[in-house]
Amino acid sequence: MAEAGLIPFDDRDGFIWLDGKLVPWREANLHVLNHGLHYASGVFEGERCYSGNIFASKEHSERLHNSARILDFKVPFSVEELEKAKYDTLKANNLTEAYVRPIAWRGAEQMGVSAQKSKIHVAIAVWEWPSYFSPEALMKGIRMRTGPWKRPPPDSAPVASKATGLYMICTLSKHWAESQKIDDAMMLDWRGFVSEGTGANIFLNIDGKLHTPTPDCFLNGITRQTVMRIAKEHQIEVVERHIPYDDLAKATECFVTGTAAEVTPVGSIDDHTFVVGSMTQTLMKSYSNLVRGK
User: Fold this and answer.
1) Does residue 58 carry a catalytic annotation?
2) What backbone phi and psi angles, to 5 degrees, belong to 31?
3) Distance, CA of 84 to CA of 96 (rounded, Å)
4) CATH 3.30.470.10-classified regions of the chain
């Protein structure tokens, strides 16, 4: 039985695009002996549709293809086909404000570490998506603590791919944060540098400049890249570098970015506190206007 108030994702009305056609939501199933399930051989995207327009849609489709290449398989639908499929799925579900989840994975033809002959499947699901954090958190800034898991070095994981397996430590870190009664965990990298949150990139205002970690062991988020462009348009100097943990003490503002999180201010990380200052507010407003076509 599902938890009270919780609507399971496998028991909903609507349609999901699966391998080239729209199928009823509850029929979009796969076999339990599936390589993607057993060996995490899957890649995905997280996108948002605002007033009928998916923000940076083509960039997300291109990244899905690139993520698959890194995991040594090819998405069997072109970028153009994925673009059409996303909007077809939105239309079939009568949604104009939604989260969009494309995913590609290896099927059940081979069950073992090697799966070069497995069929590649692709699905696209869309659903309504509320604010990732509470309205109060958005006003005051979310609370974060340094989590127990670290981002791996680039020679030990396909860090440039938005691969399903890389999110295992994010889930563990998020569960740890929730057990601590805080909003999210901040992840360091294997060297001890500031890395990111469990599902969002991180930025710091230090002496009027916008500092953000170099994405050499985590995903260079599309929202991250967008916010950096917006900052430069506002003549805010952007500094990409390896950020030692102790530099958190030098920051006056902090925020995280992601498709789900958008631009979310951070009120504290461990014992370090930040204000929701003018830089954060400017970038929040500018990003919101951009994605909504204002």
Assistant:
1) no
2) -75, 150
3) 15
4) 15-127
Contact between 132 and 260 under an 8 Å Cβ cutoff? The reply is: yes
Residues 135-291, CATH architecture: Alpha-Beta Barrel (3.20)
Phi, psi of 93 (to 5 degrees): -100, 5
In this prediction, residue 7 has a pLDDT band, given cuts at 50, 70 and 90, of confident
Choosing from 162, 174, 232, 294, the catalytic residue is: 162
Range list for CATH 3.20.10.10 in the chain: 135-291
| Ordered DSSP codes for 217-233 | SS---HHHHHHHHHHHH
Structure confidence at residue 1 as a pLDDT band (50, 70, 90): very low
pTM assigned to the model: 0.94
pLDDT at 132: 66
Looking up tokens 């006003």 gives 139
